[in-house]
Amino acid sequence: MKNVIKFPLKYILILIVLLTTYGCYEDLDDNGAFTNEINDFVWKGMNAAYLYKDNIQDLLNNRFTSDSDYLDYLNLFETPEVLFENLIFNRETIDKHSIIVDNYVELQQYFQGVSTSNGMEYGLRYFPGSNFDIYGYVRYVHPGSVADQNNIKRGDIFFEINNTSLNLDNYSSFLSMDSYSVNFADYFNNNTPEIIDDTIVSNNITVDLYKVSLEKNPIFHSDIIENSDGKSGYLLYNQFTSTFDDELTEVFANFKSNNIDNLILDLRYNSGGSINSAILISSLITGQFTNEIFSTEQWNNEIQSYWLNNDPEYLINRFIENSNSLNLNKVIIITSRSSASASELVINCLRPYINVIQVGTTTYGKYQASVTLYDSPDFSLNGVNPSHNYALQPLVLKTLNSLGETDYYNGLSPDVFAEEDSSNLGIIGNIDEPLLSIALGQISLDKNFNNYTQELDLIGDSNEFDVLDKEMYYYIENYSKFDNSYERKK
């Protein structure tokens, strides 16, 4: 396989650029102020890399006239978290996803597919006829997890946590707890297509769940379906996790050895992840576009100008070569409102090259990516400050496809609309599962499923309780190639 690991070196070179741009204020290690020491890191990291730096007055390079002026500013913020939020651009509308963490080990584990979870993945919707009360429906359960051991399964409905009804005000605090009791119910559609007369009734089943460290394999289900339209590969892929790239390649090797005619890529529960993996899967779907532009990047003005003037190639991500590529000219992708970031990147960047038929509902709408910045001279783990475990995960770039298309704030709209029915989710991989059935119908284009059902509000899902929610990122595996002899520009 050629050029699969491209971004670690690329990211290191970008870090070099960051070191040429951020403010040259004195380190505060000798001040004896632990919070200020971390605040200093927060400001310098955001000043160097933040995508929306030019929109934040406090991040401008000429913001402070002296070291004492800078120190006085840092003293205004009692915690690094408060300072970080002060440096975010339009938290409610533009930057919903930059985060600061006080334990970067959790971030590193998440990048490897490990997070604290009870294994129950779910969506959250309004009760029929309500715009306040909420119920949850189980989308799938991770094998071997606590939820699996308690026989929770796809299609189960829950409406209470710890015997308290879920609503807009309390669901986040309840479902973020490490342990809780789940009160289940039955969903009745009363044999009508309307939602308003549906009912949810307790079935008196309660299960105690608790969260543990869990490795989540994103390759949840793959299969080959044979019918009159030939052989169709089906893959339910739930997170872009580089740790499982080899297994992902094996799935496509199986598809290729079985000479599949069509591919259905199910991203309905995929909230994003590694850009590396997005490029890999897109290259495996195609193969005929090796070295063509997959996507381009737009960083903040300082970083963007540097690369445009010195090496524009570093702003370009290209399709890679892989012997297991399928060379398809069409792919059917299943989406939902939970499909975000790297999932949308695949759709947006494949569309200029092949026929992408999107089945499902409109995606989330996230086109920005982040990187991890540590408290060290070059923001890598090399020489990281041992006195704390804070790290930043700020948005640093926007992604554009080869046609320059980006900024899909409102998500990517489907070609064929179809919404999951909480009362009839079906069995994953079964040809009668409603969304898969509709996707299969698009192969021969002899069925019209538009207006299959009405679109329902998705209040949230289990992904929002992970360390990163709907994130797209560069995950750095190796900083050893960083050139410490690089001379910073004055």
Please sum up the structure shown.
The chain contains twelve helices and 24 strands.
Description:
- With 490 residues, the chain is α+β, with helices and mostly antiparallel strands.
- The protein has 3 domains: 7-92, no CATH class; 118-213, Roll (Pdz3 Domain), CATH 2.30.42; 219-473, 2-enoyl-CoA Hydratase, Chain A, domain 1.
- Helix content is 23%, strand content 25%.
- It contains 12 helices and 24 strands.
- The chain has helices at residues 7-21, 34-49, 67-74, 80-86, 104-111, 146-149, 171-175, 245-257, 275-285, 301-310, 342-350, 434-441, and strands spanning 99-101, 114-117, 120-126, 134-141, 157-161, 164-165, 179-188, 199-210, 212-215, 219-227, 230-237, 262-266, 273-274, 293-298, 316-318, 330-335, 355-360, 368-370, 373-374, 391-393, 395-400, 416-417, 458-461, 472-473.
- The strands form 6 sheets. Strands 3, 4, 5, 6, 7, 8 and 23 form a 7-stranded antiparallel beta sheet that branches.
- Strand 16 (330-335), helix 11 and strand 17 form a beta-alpha-beta unit.
- The two termini are 41 Å apart.
